Amino acid sequence: MAGGSQIIINKNGITVITPGKFEAKAGQHLFKSGEHTNYELPILPSVKEIDRKSMRFDLSQLDSLSDFSNTKYRVYKNNGSFHEGLLDSRGRTKRIFTEDTQELDLFIDHPNFIVEEEFFVEPNDDQGD
Length: 129
Known about the structure:
By secondary structure, this protein is mainly beta. It has one helix at residues 47-50, and strands at 6-10, 13-17, 53-55, 72-76, 82-86, 96-98, 103-109, 116-120.
């Protein structure tokens, strides 16, 4: 016995008893307990969520904005609703989801920069970005 662990070898086989981690490599394993595990099922997206359109504005190529930190933006949808936030360090908005293809208006609040760009939301396979 070493540190509370035991290996018993006899005509019935090999028995290992340990209070800690156990790793075994053999052609056959017989486990008397501990063979079950609890886990949570992941939440899968509904069909409605899968069919949504996704858009993210990327302003990293604009020369007039080199420092994106604390740059406020607001994106308007055609129904009048809007999303607002701060551009990330790379000059991108958060991802915006819509149920269908639609025109979006982007407004940026920066002391040296005024821009209004119109974009159309297209299906986007890159939804993990």
